[in-house]
Design a protein that fits this description.
- This protein has ten helices and twelve strands.
- The chain has 334 residues and is α/β, with parallel strands linked by helices.
- The protein has one domain: Alpha-Beta Barrel (TIM Barrel), CATH 3.20.20.
- It has a twelve-stranded mixed beta sheet.
- Strand 10 and strand 11 form a beta hairpin.
- Helix 1 runs parallel beside helix 2.
- It starts with 13 loop residues before the first strand and ends with a helix.
- The structure holds S-adenosylmethionine (SAM) and iron/sulfur cluster (SF4).
């Protein structure tokens, strides 16, 4: 079976699966406070449909899966899906991105079903600011989820943080200390224009370079961030370690200031079965009618191959004629 390679020669081996568009938070850089319209239940792909889809894609080179949303832990019986995906030959890594509200209760079942890793999103260590960002007073529960996940899953826990100027960027040193104290990897993801409220502006963006500088200034006794020798140069995250040998890492995903589109190896499927070849795609390939309408595996494979062939060269955020994506982050599956 030929591999999934686009017209620019990028090999696609990474699939992000959105298992729901619903969420128990309303992060201001992602969702509106009110008025989100959810997909009808019957519009969301079933576990069987998702399993079949991944079985079709694995022989085409898909190796890594990430379950996301919306909030993936809101999807009922999620461990069942993971068990199904785990049996697919060729899939060697299954990860999940979560806001961790429900993680303390679910971590063990997720791990037992075959989940390899979780990434937790956390944008503030202060209760009130956490509530301001997520619009939920839930920091304590999230911290409990993080603690449980660190105990349950092997390897360092990865925590994603989005900093916005004037809102939570003053917490940069606190995040560095969190990494040093617990051995977590804190990944700073640059704020992207994917918020439903359309309030993103270049002035609210705090670049990875600036965050790195602030951490270096905060560290004492000549300690600095130094490039992680284990870093995969093709991966989107540039990981750094502390020069004094303290545990923990700091990673930067500089999607806006240093785009990594030329190495992009990802595609996404939304909860309602639309294939997206870029976060910022203007167009989608609707696979639900094929998955539900009796199309053969070959027909579905062909539709994916055609979409991948035309994968966007890059996201164009920095171009004067940039056009926002056709959906916001929680509807795409970040
Ligand atoms: N609900 C889960 C969570 O928050 O981890 C999974 C879905 S969420 C859309 C996935 C990731 O996208 C989160 O780490 C979140 O911080 C990030 N994200 C959402 N909107 C973003 C934006 N406008 N810019 C950058 N990252 C964003
Ligand atoms: Fe929900 Fe995640 Fe979006 Fe926050 S970032 S609103 S937790 S989907």
């Amino acid at each position: 079976m030929p591999l999934l390679i686009d017209q620019l020669g990028r090999k696609i081996d990474n699939l992000r699966i959105s298992v729901t568009d619903r969420c128990n938070f309303r992060c201001l850089y992602c969702m509106p406070e009110e008025g989100m319209e959810w997909l009808p239940k019957e519009g969301v792909l079933s576990f069987e449909e998702l399993e079949r889809f991944v079985r079709i894609l694995a022989p085409m080179g898909i190796r890594k899966l990430r379950l996301t949303g919306g909030e993936p832990l809101l999807r009922r019986d999620l461990p069942q899906l993971i068990s199904l995906l785990r049996t697919i030959e060729g899939i060697d890594d299954i990860a999940l991105t979560t806001n961790a509200l429900l993680l303390a209760e679910q971590a063990a079942a997720l791990q037992e079903s075959g989940l390899d890793r979780v990434n937790v999103s956390l944008d503030s260590l202060l209760r009130e600011r956490f509530e301001q960002i997520t619009r939920r007073d839930a920091l304590d529960r999230v911290l409990r989820g993080i603690e449980q996940a660190a105990k349950t899953f092997q390897g360092p826990l990865k925590i994603n943080a989005v900093l916005m100027r004037g809102l939570n960027d003053a917490e940069t040193p606190a995040f560095a200390e969190l990494a040093r104290e617990h051995g977590h990897t804190i990944r700073f993801i640059e704020y992207m224009p994917l918020d439903a409220d359309e309030s993103w502006s270049r002035s609210s963006l705090v670049t990875g370079a600036e965050i790195r500088e602030r951490i270096d200034q905060h560290l004492e006794n000549g300690t600095r961030l130094v490039e992680d020798p284990a870093r995969d140069q093709r991966a989107p995250a540039a990981d750094y370690i502390f020069s004094d040998g303290a545990p923990g890492k700091i990673g930067f995903i500089n999607s806006v200031s240093e785009p990594f589109c030329e190495n992009c190896n990802r595609i996404r499927i939304t909860a309602d079965g639309k294939l997206r070849t870029c976060l910022f795609s203007q167009e989608e390939t609707d696979l639900a009618p094929l998955l539900r309408g009796g199309a053969s595996d070959e027909r579905i494979a062909k539709a994916v191959r055609m979409a991948v062939h035309d994968k966007e060269p890059g996201h164009r955020i920095n171009e004067p004629d940039f056009v926002r994506a056709s959906r916001s982050m929680s509807q795409i599956g970040g």
